[in-house]
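Please, structure for the following, as tokens.
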Amino acid sequence: MAKKAKKKKTTSKRTATKDWRSATLALIRKLIKEAAPNAVEEAKWKKPTNPSGVPTWSHDGIICTGEIYKDKVKLTFARGASLKDPSKLFNASLDAGTRRAIDIREGEKLNESAFKALIVEAVELNTSKWETH
């Protein structure tokens, strides 16, 4: 009788992220809801390699996206270069013309009040583009 081949352990992106990255993204969702209750979350940019898409929060324009990578959760603010960041949360895409990002790695703690302040400011910036002067 032939030996059964060992089943190769595979994990999809969805099941592989049920760890600290999922918990981090859940916290981000909670903080955004607290800071901007009228913000809408959508899954954008769906593709075969990422069928769930990228969580994207909007309010009169994109506020930020939340992407899960192997070693980090990346929060990219669409108009981050225009936001004040007194707590220095932005730590990625610092040379980009318009956007800025926050990379959160395993074990790192997000300054929740500073993050919520960034969300509020991003909403205000998005809303201000629709105001007539």
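The mean pLDDT is 88. The first helix runs from residue 13 to 16.
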